[in-house]
Amino acid sequence: MATINLNINGKSQVVDVDPKTPLLWVLREHLNLVGTKYGCGIAQCGACTVHLEGNAVRSCSVPVSTVSNKKITTIEGLSENGDHPVQKAWLEHDVSQCGYCQTGQIMSAVALLKSNPAPTDAQIETAMSGNICRCGTYLRIKDAIRSVNTQR
Amino acid sequence: MLAGGGLMISFSGLGKLVSSENIDLKNVADEWNEITGYIKITPDNIIKILNPNPEFGQNVMTSLPMIVAEELDVDWKKVIVEMGPHDNVKLGPQFTGGSNSVRMYWKPLREAGAAARQMLRDAAAQTWSVPVDEVTTKAGLLYHEKSGKSGTYGEFASKAAANPIPKGIKLKDVKSFNVVGSSSRNVEGSKIVTGKPLFGIDSKVDGMLIAMIEHPPAFGKKLKSFDASETLKMPGIKDVFTIKLYEDGFEQGGFDTRTFNDLLVVVGNTTWEVMSARKKLKVTWEQITESKETVAGFRGKTEVVIPAELETTSAQLAKMVEFAKKPAQQLRRDGDPETAFAKAAQVLERTYTAPFLAHNCMEPMNFFAHVTDEKALFIGPHQAPGWIEPTLSKVLNMPADKIEIQMTRMGGGFGLRAYGHYMTEAALISRKMKAPIKLVYSREDDMTYGIYRPMYTATYRAALDANKNLIAFHVKGGGIPEHPIHANRFPAGAVDNYLAEGWAIPSNITIGAFRAPRSNFNAAAEQSFLDELAETMGKDPIDLRLELLKRAKENPVGKNNEYDADRYAGVLKFVREKSGWNNSESKKYSRGVAAYFCHNSYAAHVVDVVKKDGQPYVEQVFSAIDCGVVINPDAAVNMVQGAVVDGIGNALYGGLTHKDGAPEQNNFNRYRMIRHKEAPKKIDVSFVKSDTDPTGLGEPPFPPVFAAVANALYKATGKRYYDQPFGKHVEINSPRM
């Protein structure tokens, strides 16, 4: 066990865990931030996507000891009132079916738009292809991302 | 001209969306007057509607309350929707499966809304001392025009709630609907996009422990012995023990399906600690011996043989070839098929196969249980808790009224979550630990547990006379461990000489419902065969189907034909029109068509394939659906688009194979799922406008996708695709990331 200082959603947090514990489980079970989802545990599905220093990472495959004091943003920290433009676009396009993967999809989309505010369809497809949606809402996800782009 | 003579209307884009999420519950008085089991109203006229049915992404949290709101006559934007308690007496059957949610609740929810409205009118009429017939309603308000009196539902809710629920209240004319038939946003949309704890796996209470199960690594194996000494030394680990899911001789219900009975359980403080500690287990497994089980399903008791063999996919395929040659169970016979085949000028015969499919719900199986001597609380994702409750009652030896089940939003279900083994497992683990526990399956546990879509095959034969007329049709289908055949579906009823047969090979690999069970294979095979048959006969594939459907309508063969030929033809004509089937624009695509009837609804797709980087890619799809009244049009479009993507994904990539009983895929690095870049660019969905009572929608659009893809691939590559997944025979779409 080790004491690790974390900077999550702009807040300092201290956890006492096995340093190898993936960030995903620290978020979900030690900090009660359950919007980040477990899907595969091997960085294949994207359900656990969070931002590390602004970049999308799969939190299931990031040992918590490697992110001490680095800036981490989860879905809960994306906006104060659920009104980030990407969250609003998701609602506007009524994207969700079961909804389980959507927080990860949103975190990937936000990271994409930050680095590339006007992505082409091909760039959206490539950037989002690490996030599986079992319900098959891919077309609406793409429409939602496009709409954020055109609003700018 | 078109099905039912009704107008056809196409829903596209977003339409007008409304939301019921804009009410701040903090300022609402906590005085709810319950009117019928489904409606609660405060004196401040805040209206709450309970959704009775489990939500797994089919959007019943929104569509079912819309039906209540329609008859209740309230402003949908001001309605609060809440998941109802599990209470089959008060809230009906409460199961999600067979595309039944809207179909089975359509009448009861309309009646509940109409009865509540009547109770409110009665209460107002009594208070105002006016005839009830003169009391009208509009959007949550009551009026008496002559006296000029008016009031809110809330003002009369307490009085109305005290009266008995009237029966036989006249329902609204479908044509006058304004909530049903208008697009409404998912009532849980905001909670989903902000990551609120909606799912079973998000459950947490003080003192809760995490449990995981180490199940055998292969079907046909069981636990022999284990050494947990290293595991128990790992941080956070509370206990390691075995449980027996069912005692010897336990008579299983139809949805108690379980794959492994002796389970090795690791319990600890956190999921990661338990996952890590599991790796230190030293377990010896041994092969099972052949056994028999009695299962009491909806169709009575059946005895199931569980063979001991460690199965391998190549051997399974060889065995299917062998069984296909043996005599099989006759399921339907019309005319004299043997004679017709004997005198045929030409016989077309083709064999199709499909692999086991894992459901791969994004939220792995899990359940919270807290069992004490007095009562049991369960919280989690299940499609039909009422089917499992009797089992929990038996296993725990506890009356059902001491068992409370809270239904959470499900991260997918697709049929798998109709089976309750993990609820029973959670119950036994909690009882043993004398603590609240959450049982969590890892992705690997989830994918290798079984309850798969069965492995199927079918051989189709068609006999043509010298003029290329279809004179006989024969399907012989089998599978591991069940056959897929629906004997009374199209083209039964359209051919004079018809034979359907089925056979099955027992297996220790467990199976279960998977989005449109059996139909998902039958449609793939039959609709591919009809495409090849049309080509052999020199006919357009839509024309051939329409000719057969005309025959089935005008002069049907046999009596027990499940489908309505008019509605079936309706979706084919509709998709022909919407896709511009033979127009010049369509020439740039390799096009395939398929249609199917299941779960009381009709679906047809035209799939357009192009070459992208030299490889075939499904670029666009046109879908036409007849499911009667559409409750929530934009959400219905979403569901059909999802079914199309799901169908393409499973047709091209889906499949679980085995070696010596062990699944060869246990996570998404080996089990290929369709991804963003492989999804079509456009899926154009149209619904037949209809006043017919609503039927299924979650499943019907799924099965015909497979065949439409196969038929389009044939146009693109010149090769027919008989064996799923088609992606193993041709490099399809872009390579995975």
TrEMBL record, chain A:
CDD domains: fer2. It comes from the Bacteria. Gene3D superfamilies: 3.10.20.30, [2Fe-2S]-binding domain. PROSITE patterns: 2FE2S_FER_1, 2FE2S_FER_2. Signal peptide: none annotated. Keywords: 2Fe-2S, Iron, Iron-sulfur, Metal-binding, Oxidoreductase. Residues 2-78 form the 2Fe-2S ferredoxin-type domain. The keyword Metal-binding applies. It holds the Pfam family Fer2_2. This is (2Fe-2S)-binding protein. It comes from Ohtaekwangia kribbensis.
